[in-house]
Amino acid sequence: MLRGDTGTLQFVNTKGILVTLKGNPNPDNALAALQVSGSADVAIDGSVNINGEINLGANVLGFTDGISTWGNDTTISTTLTSDEVMGNIVISGAAEVKIAGLKTIKVQDNASIDFIGTKTYTLIQGDISADNGIDPNVVGTNRYVIYGLSGNTEALVTRTIDINNIENILNNDISGNGNPVIRHNLVTFLNPNNTGNAEQAYNNILLAQNTNDAATSFAATLTDTSTSVNNININVAKEEQGLIGYRLDELRYLCTPESDKMASSEGGVAAGDEPIDNVAYGVWFKPLYVDTHQSEKGGVAGYKAKTVGTVIGLDTLANDNLMIGAAIGLAKTDVKHQNYKRGDKTTIDSLSFSLYGAQQLVANFFVHGNAILSVNQVKNRSQRYVFDKNGNRSTQIASANYSNMTFGGNFMVGYDASLMDGLLVTPMAGLSYLKSSDESYKESGTTFANRQVYSKFSDRTDFIGGAKLMGYTINLADLIVYPEAHAFVIQKIGGRLSKTQYQLEGQVNPYITPSDKTARTTYNLGLSGTIRPDTKMEYGIGYDLNIAKKFISHQGTVKVRLNF
């Protein structure tokens, strides 16, 4: 005889062997729990009173005789296997189950959800009676499924997959991300007409069983770093343009009549005292180092970039008023993306060619400018996340290797004004224009998350205004030192950021990138010094600080020039 008490009754058995238990327990002592574990099928031939958890696992619990009762605290726990087999209860023969209350049905859901609509699974089959009806709370472990209970002659667990419900859940997952286009791209991601890799990516994200994992995966899948990379390419070209501009000002300063006024009060040697031929013809090179930090802005992830390189130039005085030159630049930029793109990395190798010149005009006015063409080899490493059937996350790397060109130029007008003995101020104003080329490439390295990327050109037009200040030339033990300071405002007045589109194979509509959120106003402050130990050599050092909203960069340079 099976006796019931307030403890737990556990059946452990091997699948394929039916255990039949005779029971007629004391009705005053209901079971606190009844557990069918292992791979057991159990049949109860008698009356059992239960007022606790019935844990079925993926097994069958049979009631074959007698009148059993379930109290108000009864709950049922069941498992739905990956083969869509649910642990269930079968009431057969002369058995009857009277249900006073059924509080909760819990489903351990291991089945896939690669469908839209509703599926049903039998939980209780047979003769049940419930004076107050059955209205339990049905819950399950898959957060994307809406669970319920239906049926008249038997109890059926329902699993409903609704695309709007999934969209709401995933929208909630990404609510902490400020990127304005993620919600747009989420709708694209959920398009039911997607096929191939796009459909596989959708099915995989539904294996993510917590908000953090889903949000992390979406940040990687629905966003791109091309916005930052295009800005960096343009910024590197601007840095090299700046180096050449400073070189032109040094040449002018050392070779123009106005610099004759720069003799120091201590009797230092003025730059104009040297023969022009000794300074106007020469080869020079300037190593540079740039440390840049762009914080997240407008929902676009920030980055940290370090650029090292050098510019090598050759210039000459074509006539008394015209200086011309050419330069070649080499630079390597390592980018570590931040915020929700943390872990993504980009390397940019740049080779640039420049032509530059300066023309002295009347009454201390002058113009100078340069043109640049930069060929960039870009290597991206972007993280993608894949989930197994248990929701465990692993990382795959999507790699890309492609070429990009940046080209443009600037034109400046200035005036040399001697404010007092030994102090020369040069106000300047002009325009700069830079443009990056179109690009198209496909990622590789992941099972289904490689994207095809199409990017239209980016361009930028800036107004530049500011001044340079030349101080006393200083004669120290036959070394002539030329100090300089400058301040400029760079104001964006036109241009557009690349409209990049990217998509997975089988994706109906492409993802989009956010609108241009780069700062429109940048402030540049800098100091430099040039040392001439003799007429043949020049050495220099410089520092520049560029500041904008949520942007800062530090640039250091050294210079060596050999005069012919």
Descriptive labels:
single chain; 564 residues; mainly beta; twelve-stranded antiparallel beta barrel; nine-stranded parallel beta sheet; 54% strand; membrane; Autotransporte_beta; cell outer membrane; transmembrane; OmpB_passenger_Rickettsia
How would you describe this protein?
This protein has 564 residues and is mainly beta. It folds into 2 domains: 8-161, no CATH class; 226-563, Beta Barrel (Lipocalin). The protein contains 6 helices and 34 strands. It has helices at residues 163-173, 182-189, 196-205, 211-221, 226-255, 277-280, and strands spanning 8-13, 18-23, 31-38, 41-46, 49-57, 60-65, 67-70, 75-80, 88-91, 96-99, 104-109, 117-125, 128-129, 137-140, 146-150, 154-161, 282-294, 303-317, 322-337, 345-360, 365-387, 393-415, 417-420, 423-436, 439-442, 451-455, 458-470, 474-476, 479-496, 500-504, 511-512, 521-532, 537-548, 551-563. A 12-stranded antiparallel barrel has the order 17-18-19-20-21-22-24-27-29-32-33-34. Strand 30 (500-504) and strand 31 form a beta hairpin. It starts with 7 loop residues before the first strand and ends with a strand.
Low-confidence stretches: 1-8, 12-29, 260-278
Strand order of the largest sheet: 17-18-19-20-21-22-24-27-29-32-33-34
Classify the beta-strand content into a percent band.
Answer: over 45%
Any idea what the shape is? rod-shaped
By CATH, the superfamily of the largest domain comes out as Autotransporter beta-domain
CATH architecture of the largest domain: Beta Barrel
DSSP, total strands? 34
Largest sheet: 12 strands, antiparallel, barrel
Q: What is the domain total for the residues? A: 2
Kindly provide the radius of gyration, computed on alpha-carbon positions and rounded to a whole number of angstroms: 38 Å
Helix content: 10-25%
DSSP helical segment count: 6
Mean pLDDT: 84
What structural class should be given to the helix and strand makeup? mainly beta
Distance between the termini: 113 Å
User: According to CATH, what is the topology of the largest domain?
Assistant: Lipocalin
CATH C-level name of the largest domain? Mainly Beta
Protein name: Outer membrane protein B
Keywords: Cell outer membrane, Membrane, Transmembrane, Transmembrane beta strand
Domain Autotransporter: 276-564
Subcellular location: Cell outer membrane
